[in-house]
Amino acid sequence: AGVPVVKNLAAAANVDVHVLSEEAKPYVTAKASHVIMWAMVCFAQFVLFYLLMGIYEPSLAPGDFPWWRAAFAGFSIVPFGFTAVPDFLCPALTGRSVSTRVAAIMASLCAISESLACVVPLGWHGGKWCTLPLYCAECFAFVFYASVTLPLCMCRPKSQDGHLQLRLLPVRWSAHICWLVWCLTGTFGTWIVMYGVALLYIALEKWNGIVASLALPAMTTAVEYCTVAASSWLYRILVYGPRLSSPTSQSAMVGDQKPQLIISICM
Question: What angle do CA 162, 164, 168 make, to 5 degrees?
């Protein structure tokens, strides 16, 4: 006790005492005003979108132009495209976020791909063209969006001899890619599984309503439990374990990955 580590106070003022281990850093908090504001915005957007869907979707016929589906891009895809990459996908893949300008460009790309997927003709029925179902259009748009934006997140621009080059970020790619795949599986992939649960419930309800009513909560609980358990296990294997054994090792994942864990569990 009482052993000095520096010679004087002047030297102590120049000592770097930043916390290196991400697990030892505090959790990120959100302002209550921001949460309330975005909750109101999302509520208004979805209410307006569902009103349009309820009015126009039931009367949709081959050959009609489903312009109201493209409105989904403005109501929810634009905020999602603006926040999903800098706050969720890029930190999971690289441990770093992107600038607001890049996020805005990615949001515009997401809105364009979603709008085109909703209105582009897919096939013909009775001599008239048909479009993709909304759910399929969303999946198609997200795959295109992720396939373009994620490779951009993996590189950083570097100027050399007056020429702009893209260099891969020096991170542990195997762990980061596995963690990103699970973050996508535990969120959007779980939605698809829940969609399958709903279809299975409909099939069971046609056979036996009592069995379907008993099976629905059991299936839903099983999917949620498996998602939470897998998220916690993979976080310990990929993120927490390597950091705990060697906090400053280059083999450990970089960046704050706790928000990704919380988002996967919450969604």
Answer: 135
**248 CB-side CA count, 13 A:** 3
Rg (CA), the chain: 24
Q: What is the pLDDT of residues 83-114, one digit of tens each?
A: 776 777 788 888 777 777 777 777 787 778 77
Q: Which of 90, 56, 88 is nearest to 71 (CA)?
A: 56
Q: What is the 3-state secondary structure (H, E, C) of 195-222?
A: HHHHHHHHHHHHHCHHHHHHHHHHHHHH
Measured between alpha carbons, how far is 228 from 263 in angstroms, rounded to an integer? 11
Tell me if 118 sits within 8 A of 53, measured CB to CB. no
Task: Write the CB contacts of 102 (distance below 8 Å, at least 6 apart in sequence).
Answer: 85, 86, 152
CA atoms within 13 A on the CB side of 87: 15
pLDDT bucket at 1, cuts 50 / 70 / 90 = very low
Check if the beta carbon of residue 114 is closer than 8 Å to that of residue 143: no
